[in-house]
Structures are given as structure tokens and as C-alpha cells.
UniProtKB/TrEMBL annotation:
This is Multiple C2 and transmembrane domain-containing protein 2-like. It is a multi-pass membrane protein. Residues 48-166, 203-316, 350-467 form the C2 domain. It comes from Stegastes partitus (bicolor damselfish). One of its GO terms (molecular function) is calcium ion binding. It is found in: Membrane. Belongs to the MCTP family. The keyword Transmembrane helix applies.
Length: 729
């Protein structure tokens, strides 16, 4: 930044950006990624710092906000240790003005000398301000304070850049030296320019906002396969698991019993961002009891030189005497991620659609297609402040991919008009849209949420949906208007259906819930009642309770056994699905009947009244009982899911899956008809016995269970059901 003051505009001065602004609607889109680009763009107009405000606060210069504070957060030195186990910290910086946060930096993990190199701006009404700079250590729960400092603005000379070493201090801490934060600060006028130039600032601020949104996009995908552990100690009882972390992305493996060579065989993906040069962190833990967690070793993997589309084999030694860990890493390029205005949405181009056409199915089986979500607006959102307003933003999630809009301040009727494009890995995924209220440095409040299965999307049609609560159980206040478009290849989608389903990276903190337990018991009881009724019906045929029914059943049994062939089994199931389809098309049945809702009427009393007071010595017993009940709760939920998903295949809850089932059953019937069973069983056995020999790192899976996981249960059907609101002009 130049320390020389800028001259006022000459009223007769020809603006070199006039043509640029007048033709902006037809010009090629421009991407501005650095502040230097703006300086070049506005060369000859004046100081570019007036338009360096990025993010949601970027607005037109106002007369009431006379100054602009530009800050370049560079680095930290010799910061204090807050993670005693690793001897490091995960620092980030907050900037506050009059007690309100106006900027928060990214987190630099495992570093006491972090480098941020982040620039931002903030408008000010006057110079009588003191900026509070606070440093925190990022934790899983509450963040630890690492010291603070301040910047006084009243003595700063305008248009002069100051490099400051801010010494951190904490009156409550006994540490003498808490390190320093190095920043560059420049204060300047904001309202010096003629109002006729405002369209230039609007355009550049708009481009800066788009550039900040694009920073959310990832450029590659890291495919990680956790294979096994080798030579691990076997003493004691307990579980072992592995944690992976890349930036803010985390993955926890399943728990295995302590053994010498545990076999995980798990595969998951991390998104690789272009500006993120952090290493992949891997740590092995052992857990004994409720609080006995111990680290057996942590190491980092440098991803900067990882080649594309080449599987890398890693065998890392853990702490002394703790063995080794074996895993694979593959970096793949990513395509189809974008954030843009609705007018320039990418899926309107014919070449984007051709990339997912049927003739290209053999090129990349792992990619199914594209999803484009046009987030237009929301109406009648809940108010969160005393003025009856909110600061809403919308987060769009598809699997483990997440993008978000900018924040619209002080309104309950925001208009975003943004188009988000995602690559589809699984056509059975559900896109979730969460409307949040930005709350400064505190956690955002959830204003509402909707979930839409991709197979239920009607392309190009505007829909207005009622928002639901965070658990998607009941309705909330407000509506959201969307336009969705799904373009996918049915061949790839069909192949992907029989492969393992992607695991969610977010770790859910499972807790015992009386409501969930009651609901799962009710679901299992419905399924078991139907099974018992069928068995009772068959038993009644054997006991000749009805002569006519028993006689017909006997004749069917004789004919079936006499002429039985295996092809009749899938053919019978095919006829059963076809019969249910006929019932649905004629209106005699519905695929949404007998759905389990989250109505409180299902909450019957399971436990007797228990006083809240208790002895401290009983905590371990109570915790043990809670774990047992939680395990029973999860088992009941899994059993109910299997039963309901099997039922929903036959009642055409998801037509794509029902059609795919018909196709598989027809092919199976044809194979069993032309090929003897003994040969099919022989091929299956040879395949199972030789799979490990052909690929030592193969991941075992059950195709039938993988297929069933794509079918929604009754609870999920209630959560994903769309509550359409009337569309107003």
C-alpha cells in the first residue's frame, strides 16, 4: 500500500471502466483472486483499497462509514502450548470491535509458529476505536484461550501501512511470554469518491464476493483405504481405532478389539482444496473403559507431491513397541464443483450434459452425474434478535460435500439467487439444505432444514418447501424456494448401487433417547406382527381351519414342488413387485401407508419414575446400563431398517430401485434357467475363495445389504417428504 495520499477525482476525468461496466452483462466472467488484481483493474481511478472489503459485509461506501480499516494477518511466533499431549496448539485469531467479532481466521493445526497470510477490510464510522485481537486453540469441545492484544486506531496516519508485533497477554495466566502476532494495518478514507463511480465498486465487490465463495470449492479427492495394523501390542482388553484429519475434515474408523493384526478394510474420501497445503494427520488410539483413551502414535503424510490417479502404499511405524499401520492413498481430480449466479449456472451448457451421457459410461464408472441447486430465497424465517430480524445463510450438503451462500443481514426474507453444482457419487444420496442464523463468534442457530432425495427431484421446476426442524421430524417456521436439476447416467448409477455406501465423515455423538427407543420398538413390533401373521396363516393352512383354503394351498404346493426350478423364485418376486405396481397405478394401495412419524403419541412409558438424586458411587453402573440400552436401541433400529427397506422395495417407494430390482430379478431368472445351479454355486465359491488372492487389499461387502442401504426406511421417508407451500407470484 502506498503511503501517498490520493487526489480527488476530476469531474471531467474519463473513467476507463465505463465501457467495462456498461458491457458487464455480455462480457466474459472475470475472476479476481488477489487484491493486486483490483489495483490493476482500477489503475487510473484512484486508490483501490476502498473496494477491498470481501465477504458478506461488502457493500456500497456510505457517508456514515467514513474510514476503511485494511488488515493483513501475517503470522504468529512462539505461541503457547495448549495441547499438552502433542506439545503444540491449533491456533486461530478473532478480531473484535466493540465486543462484536468482524473477522475470524482459518485454523493452522499443530503449529506454534503459524502463517496465515490473510487480508481483509472493515468499514469504520470514526477513528476512536480499539481493535481487540484474540488468539484461541481449536478443540473438539471448548476452545482454549491463548492470549490477546489490541490495536489503537486514533493515532494511525491515513494511507500509511504499519507493521505491528502484537505481544499476547492473559492476566489470568501465569505464563510470562505468550508469543506475538504480526499484522499489517492501514487506515484510509472510504467516502471520498464520487457517487457516479458506485457502479464500479458494486461490480468489483460482487466479483470479490464470488471469489470468496469459490474458495469453498475443492479441486481433488483423496481416496483413503485403511487396510490393517501390524505387530500391535496385545496386552489388556479394550478397543483400537484410527483417526484421520485433513484440515477441518475428520474420519474415525470402526472400533476393533485389541489384537496383533487388526483388519479394518475401510475406504473413505477427503476433499482436497487448492489453497490447503496441510498434511494428512493419522493417529491410532486405544480405548479401555469410559475415559481410558491412549494415543499409540501420530504421524503426518505430505500430500503436496502426491501424483494423480496413482495409488500410494504407506506403512508407518507408530510409537516404540506399538507396531505399524498400513493404508493406501489415491489423489483423483474432481470435476463438477461450482458456485455461480443463477443466470450463469453451468448445467445449462450442452457440453456439461454430454459428460454424463450413456456413451461415456465406460470412461469413469465412479462418477454418476451432476446436481445443480438454485437457492433462490426464503420467506418468513424466525427472528433471532430484538428487532425481529435474522442474519440468514443457507448451507447445501450432498454426502460429505458442503457449500454455502453468503449471509444476508438483518432480514427474515433473504434472497440469495446462487447456483451450486455438485458431482454425484451416489444417485441415492440426499441433498440437505440448512438455513442458519449467523451469530458472530458464537455457534450459528438452525432456523430450518429440508432434505430432498435425488431420485425425487423434478428437474427445472421451482418448488417452495416448508422448513423443518433440525432433526427433520416436524415443521418449523418459514419456507425456502429452490430449483433443482439432476443429470445422471443410469448405467453408472445402477453399478454404484451395488457398491459400498459412502460413510459420513461427521461423527455423531450417540446418546440414549427414550423417544428413539420407543419408536424403534414400535417399528420392530409392526414388522414382527406382519411376519407372525404370515406364519399363522400358513399354519392355518396345515391345520385345515378352512377346507377351501387348505385344499387350494395343498394343490399349489404339489404343483410347485413337482415342477420347481430356481428361476421361479426371482420370477415369483418379480410378479409380486409387478402386482404391487398394478395396485399403485390403480389407486388401490399407497407406498406411503403405515409410515412411522415422530408423533409424541408413540412415546409410551418404558421406565418407571426415577428420582434425579442419586449417589455418586452409582455413576459407573448407570453408565454401563446406558451403554447396554444404547446397544439394544441400535440393534432394534437396524432390524427395523432391514424390514422396512425390504418392504419399500416391493411397494415402489423408490421407483428407480424397484425398476432396478425388477431388472436384477429378471436377469437372475434367465441365468438360473439356462445355467444349472451347481455351476453357479461353483463360480460363486471360487470367486469368494480367490478374491483375497487376486486383490490383497480388497474390501469385503455384501451386495444385498449395500443395495438395501439405498432404500429409505419409513422414518427416512417421513423426513424426506416434501411439504409444498403455495407458490406466490
Amino acid at each position: 500500500m502506498s503511503s501517498e495520499p490520493c487526489e480527488f477525482f476530476d469531474e471531467n476525468f474519463q473513467d476507463p471502466l465505463e465501457n467495462f461496466v456498461s458491457t458487464a452483462s455480455t462480457a466474459v466472467p472475470i475472476e479476481i483472486s488477489q487484491a493486486s488484481d483490483i489495483k490493476n483493474l482500477t489503475n487510473g481511478i484512484g486508490s483501490p483499497q476502498e473496494v477491498m472489503t470481501v465477504g458478506p459485509e461488502a457493500q456500497i461506501p456510505a457517508a456514515c462509514q467514513r474510514y476503511l480499516l485494511n488488515v493483513n494477518l501475517k503470522q504468529g511466533r512462539n505461541l503457547v502450548i495448549r495441547d499438552k499431549r502433542s506439545g503444540t496448539s491449533d491456533p486461530y485469531v478473532k478480531f473484535k470491535l466493540e465486543g462484536k467479532q468482524f473477522y475470524k481466521s482459518k485454523v493452522v493445526y499443530k503449529n506454534l509458529n503459524p502463517r496465515w497470510n490473510e487480508s481483509f477490510s472493515h468499514p469504520l464510522r470514526d477513528r476512536e476505536h480499539v481493535v481487540d485481537v484474540r488468539v484461541y486453540d481449536k478443540n473438539r469441545t471448548a476452545d482454549d484461550f491463548m492470549g490477546s492484544s489490541s490495536i489503537s486506531l486514533k493515532n494511525l496516519e491515513l494511507y500509511k501501512t504499519y507493521e505491528m508485533e502484537l505481544r499476547l497477554d492473559d492476566p489470568k495466566s501465569k505464563e510470562d511470554d505468550m508469543g506475538v502476532i504480526i499484522v499489517e494495518v492501514c487506515l484510509m478514507f472510504r467516502d471520498r469518491w464520487p457517487q457516479r463511480k458506485n457502479k464500479v465498486w458494486i461490480l468489483i465487490s460482487h466479483l470479490l464476493l464470488n471469489n470468496q465463495l469459490k474458495n469453498q470449492m475443492w479441486t481433488g479427492v483423496l481416496g483413503i483405504t485403511l487396510v490393517e495394523g501390524q505387530d500391535l501390542p496385545q496386552y489388556g482388553q479394550g478397543d483400537i481405532y484410527v483417526r484421520f484429519r485433513l484440515g477441518d475434515q475428520k474420519y474415525k474408523s470402526k472400533n476393533l478389539c485389541i489384537q496383533a493384526n487388526p483388519q479394518w478394510r475401510e475406504q473413505f474420501d477427503f476433499n482436497q482444496f487448492e489453497d490447503n497445503q496441510e498434511p494428512l494427520q493419522v493417529e491410532l488410539f486405544s480405548k479401555r473403559g469410559r475415559k481410558g483413551e491412549e494415543s499409540w502414535g501420530m504421524f503426518e503424510v505430505d500430500l503436496s507431491r502426491l501424483p494423480l490417479n496413482e495409488r500410494q502404499f504407506y506403512t508407518h511405524v507408530l510409537d516404540p513397541g506399538k507396531g505399524k499401520l498400513v493404508f493406501l492413498v489415491t489423489l483423483r481430480p474432481c470435476w463438477g464443483v461450482s458456485i455461480s449466479d443463477i443466470e450463469t449456472a453451468p448445467l445449462t451448457k450442452p457440453d456439461e450434459r454430454d459428460m454424463v451421457s450413456l456413451r461415456n459410461s465406460h470412461k469413469c464408472v465412479g462418477d454418476v452425474g451432476f446436481l445443480q441447486v438454485n437457492v433462490m430465497k426464503a420467506n418468513d424465517l424466525p427472528a433471532t434478535d430484538l428487532n425481529g430480524k435474522s442474519n440468514p445463510l443457507c448451507v447445501v450438503e450432498l454426502g460429505n460435500c458442503k457449500l454455502q451462500t453468503h449471509t444476508v443481514y438483518k432480514t427474515v426474507n433473504p434472497e440469495w439467487n446462487k447456483a451450486f453444482t455438485f458431482p454425484i457419487k451416489d444417485i441415492h444420496d440426499v441433498v440437505e439444505l440448512t438455513v442458519l442464523d449467523e451469530n458472530g463468534d458464537k455457534a450459528s442457530n438452525v432456523l430450518g432444514k429440508v432434505a430432498i432425495p435425488l431420485l425425487t427431484v423434478q428437474n427445472g421446476q421451482p418448488i417452495c418447501l416448508f422448513l423443518k426442524k433440525e432433526d427433520l421430524g416436524s415443521t418449523s417456521k418459514g419456507t425456502i424456494t429452490l430449483v433443482l436439476e439432476v443429470i445422471y447416467n443410469k448405467v453408472r448409477a445402477g453399478i454404484r448401487t451395488f457398491q459400498p455406501k459412502e460413510t459420513k465423515l461427521t461423527e455423531e455423538n450417540l446418546k440414549f433417547s427414550k423417544k428413539v427407543l420407543a419408536r424403534n420398538i414400535y417399528r420392530v413390533r409392526k414388522i414382527s406382527t406382519a411376519v407372525l401373521y404370515t406364519l399363522q396363516y400358513i399354519k392355518s393352512c396345515f391345520q385345515w381351519e378352512s377346507t377351501q383354503r387348505s385344499l387350494i394351498a395343498f394343490l399349489i404346493f404339489i404343483v410347485t414342488v413337482w415342477h420347481w426350478e430356481l428361476f421361479m423364485l426371482p420370477l415369483f418376486l418379480l410378479l409380486l413387485i409387478g402386482w404391487n405396481y398394478f395396485q399403485l397405478t390403480t389407486g388401490r394401495a399407497s407406498s406411503n401407508q403405515d409410515l412411522v412419524s415422530d408423533d409424541d403419541s408413540l412415546l409410551f412409558s418404558i421406565y418407571p419414575y426415577r428420582s434425579e438424586s442419586g449417589k455418586k458411587g452409582l455413576m459407573d453402573k448407570i453408565h454401563m446400563v446406558q451403554e447396554v440400552v444404547l446397544a439394544v436401541q441400535n440393534v432394534l433400529e437396524e432390524l427395523a431398517n432391514i424390514g422396512e427397506r425390504t418392504k419399500n422395495i416391493f411397494n415402489w417407494s423408490v421407483p428407480f430401485l424397484s425398476c432396478l430390482s425388477c431388472l436384477v430379478m429378471f436377469v437372475s431368472a434367465a441365468l438360473l434357467y439356462f445355467i444349472p445351479l451347481r455351476y453357479i454355486v461353483l463360480i460363486w465359491g471360487v470367486n469368494k475363495f480367490t478374491k483375497k488372492l487376486r486383490n490383497p487389499y480388497t474390501i469385503d461387502n455384501n451386495e444385498i445389504l449395500d443395495f438395501l442401504k439405498r432404500v429409505p426406511s419409513d422414518v427416512q421417508k417421513v423426513q424426506y417428504s416434501a411439504l409444498r407451500a403455495p407458490t406466490t407470484p
